[in-house]
Amino acid sequence: MPYNMEFSPGVLLALALTGYLLGAAGALALWKRPRAARWWSFGGAFVAATCGLCAAIAALVQGADGSSWSVKLPQLMAYLPMDIPMKLRLDSLGAFFVLVVSLPGLAVSLYSLGYARGFEGCRSVAALGALFNVLLLAMTLVFVAGNAFLFLIAWEVMALSSYLLVSFEHEKPETRRAGVLFFIMSHIGTGCLILGFLLLFQATGSLDFGQFHAAGGGLPAGKRDAIFLLFLTGFGVKAGIVPLHIWLPAAHPVAPSNVSAVMSGVLIKTGIYGMARVFFDFLGAPPNWWGVTVLTIGTVSALLGVLYALMEHDLKRLLAYHSIENIGIILMGLGASLMFVHSGHPALATLALIAGLYHTLNHAVFKALLFLGAGAVLHATHTRNMEEMGGLAKRMRWTALFFLVGAAAISALPPLNGFVSEWLTYQSLLQGFGTTESLIRLMFPISGALLALTGALAAACFVKAFGITFLAQPRSESARQAQEGSRTMLLGQGILTCACVFLGLFPMLLLRLLDPVTQQLTGEQLSGQLTTAGGLVLSTGVPGAGTISMLGITVAGLGLLVVPLVLWLAFGRRARTRIGPTWDCGLQGLTPQMEYTATGFSKPIRMIFKALFRPRREVQREYDFSPYYATTLRFESHVEEVFQTRIYRPLNLLVLRFSRRLRALQAGSIQAYLIYIFITLVLLLLWTL
Amino acid sequence: MNLNPLAIVLQTALLLALAPLMSGLIKNWKAKLQNRRGPRIWQPYADIIKFLRKDMVISEHASWVFPVAPYVVFISALVAGLMVPMLTAQAPLSLFGGVLAVIGLLALGRFFLALGGLDPGSAFGGMGSSREMTIAAIAEPAMMLAIFTVAIGAGSTDLSHIVQASQGPMWNMLNPTHAMAFVALFIVLLAETGRIPVDNPATHLELTMIHEAMLLEYSGRYLALMEWGASIKQLVLMTLLVNVFLPAGIATEASPGALAVSAGAFVAKLLVVAAEVVLVETTNAKLRLFRVPDLLSAAFVLATLALLSTFLFK
Q1: Same domain as A117, residue A40
Q2: Are residues A605 and A529 part of one domain?
Q3: pLDDT digit string (tens) for A305-314?
């Protein structure tokens, strides 16, 4: 056995992969016994993810000297028709993304122990558990694949298993449609990836990632641009960039919530991984327009993602649209980094890259947390429609608290992790002004301002998401009877909540882990320069350009609680508290129907951006004697999904029309087919001559 | 760069003491300009003490978010205030964050304020929250661009550095860049503090209130914290405006003489800004809600022009 025992990250990684495999196989073996299958598969996934987490951290700590290394597992498929080894390689970039998959993976597995119980008796828990393990396995493999062949296999296993998981509740037509859309879009992306890898193969004569890295910079410019565009499209589909995003808000919400958490938190990050790998590791010095393209796509995705999220009143669709927003923010960091690399500012490029990668991990954590919270709510109320929720903060205290932390983190509010990574993004955009590139100096502040708009809209959206879902009176009977989820569900959310706080208060620990990654991609290590005051204060690396300390802010805030305490001691000790009704303007008490709705909450924004949303509403009123006293009222409001109606629907029609024309070729007569074959042969012969 | 406990305590006291005074002053001057007598300038202090002494009525529909919100609003405004230079160029907590943290902390306060508005389940609160978050969202890019313009000029987001850099010989108060950024930020100030073309602080007419609508269910101690927090936020934004754009007189070292001069200059500048606010409030009518974006996009365009002009005037 070629296992290198003293090499602990490799062993841990092998343990993780084996754990996922065993989890999947065991679940299938226990098909008839759902309870055992649930414990085995999700317990196995938990253990495996823990091993993966340890492997990633160990690899990043060991690799802190900047060296990347690879581990060769035994040839898994000795009887492969081609002589292509299944090479696994855990380098720094891969290790960081293994961290990104393992941390949410661990918490989600724990949560699933409780959550999947709801499926027992009506659905195959074993299938869910097995596919869940396969999905985590495939994602881990994508991050540690050492050549294009294994990468593409893992990529396809990942796509297929997530397709099956999306279609888990397949008796609903909505779910089936979403599954098919996901499948088609995913394969358009894979097609682009295959073409991109073939171009690289053609240039290097190898499928090995190491060879790509060595030769990528020396390719002719036209070919590199083609590879860039192919990979941008291929990985962009998976990441959900605008305008390739349409599958994401359809597919993520219909999957079981634990799967949604993994898909939105981690699966779309495989696209980010691919971009970081190809743009930074393979292709060498980027021309300026690459960075400009990525930054523009990022800015547009961020803004449109949050604007569409605001229009949603389906809690899980809202979260799915926010994934598009956050992918946009991550790409702003990557795009800025590419532009800095081009203009010869490695330190600034590293800062921007760190911002992007930090946000990648942060988004994985808080998005998984929010989806788990949404899952718990769905579990308790049996609806995804926010208009039927409300009052859950009293009924599901802990879930509400965890969801609130996640909502504050994703809205980039201090002192949580979202603020730290957006602060780094702002700083890298601002530092662009020190360069001489006029394009950078113009684009970056505008992007920064749009990022501010995005952030503020996200805050508005999460006030709505949390406020309508958890606060005020319950709007339906099922919300009134909602109960807290099981303990493992809460534990899973609790872990992620702690991670949100921890990554906010102690960014320096993660920065140290990011050192080998940036060393690999841009040749710089910044953790030493980015922290001051004993590692408790984060700075931009440029002296005097700005510092921040979430820990300091938290301590100061807690310390200042003395002020209200003193005020209470001085004036308010005699004051009593009574519980009373909300002011109802003299009516007979407030009913839930009088509360603000999710649709009503976002109406001002719908009106302000009506050029984009093209809102349409229909009101039908029936009355007996006066229109002011309507007996029945029907209200309908729609928002146009511009990308569906303006891009995809015409495209779809075009494809259908074209295929109808082609149908003439396939008339069913053997003679005609023989003639086609003959003509093709002749043409091929002529071509080879 | 060190933390000075004395400075922290002094600036906290200054923020707490001065904030209600500014609100009272603006209210009093506004009344005078409209030929009314108006409340005394000390009235807000009396109000706060009265609220602190009163019993509280909490809505039966409210959850644990409702009592948490006033503390978050109050504390976040206070911490933000400690990052803004008031009397000395060195803000007490500038090590913990610069202007981005100030904006973030104010956003944190607003987030909880809006949640507190939604919690009791009254339609007014929901309406106020919805409008507050919308206006904040469209004010934010203008604010950020205006801030970026000065931050880029100083090469730092640390407010102490910005203030110090603007005292150097390169500083020119009539620089068009700064003039435009100042106007943009002033419009944002009006929007963020709920002043007249955007919101009316004096109204309790149901359909027009924004900030007041969110506070409708608060009473007693919580109301005191909310009101006080709002006035501290107003003071923080005004201080940001005057000390970043007109830093004349601010003390660069902590000697008693310099501090006295600085205090005098600071108060004088605040009075000027307060007078501007009073003038704007008295001479303008409140805009319809859907006209507010026009005003704020004007601020955004001004800030963009300010940014572009840094290319021209460098």
Answers
A1: yes
A2: no
A3: 999 999 999 9
* CB contact residues (below 8 A), chain A span 225-284, against chain B: none
The upper half-sphere exposure of residue A396, i.e. CA atoms within 13 Å in the direction of its Cβ, equals: 35
Chain B: nearest CA to A456, how far in angstroms? 5
Closest C-alpha among A493, A522, A37, A98 to residue A269: A98
- Strand extents, DSSP E, A439-570: 531-532, 537-539, 547-548
A436 and A364 assigned to the same domain: yes
| Chain center to CA of B281 | 16
Q: Is residue A579 part of a domain?
A: no
pLDDT in tens, B252-304: 877 888 899 999 999 999 999 999 999 999 999 989 888 999 999 999 999 99
The CA distance from A115 to B116, in Å, is 31
- CB within 8 Å of chain B, chain A residues 463-492: 463-464, 466-468, 470-473
| Same-domain pairing of A535 and A651 | no
Q: Please report, rounded to a whole number, the percentage of residues in chain B having pLDDT higher than 90.
A: 64
CA torsion B266-B272-B274-B276 (nearest 10°) is -150
Confidence of residue B161 (pLDDT cuts 50, 70, 90): confident
- Domain boundaries, position A650: 644-688
Q: Tell me, yes or no, whether A37 lies in a domain.
A: yes
Residues A615 and A665 in one domain: no
Contact list in A for residue B133 (CB cut-off 8 A) is 456, 459-460, 463-464
Give chain A positions within 8 Å (CB) of B181.
none
Domain count, chain A: 4
Tell me: do A477 and A607 sit in the same domain.
Answer: no
Closest chain A residue by Cα to residue B136? A456
Q: What is the ipTM of this complex?
A: 0.95
The ranges assigned to domains in chain B are 5-312
Contact flag A438-B311 (C-beta cutoff 8 Å): yes
Whether residue A610 lies within 8 A of chain B, CB to CB, comes out as no
d(C-alpha A419, C-alpha B254), whole Å = 33
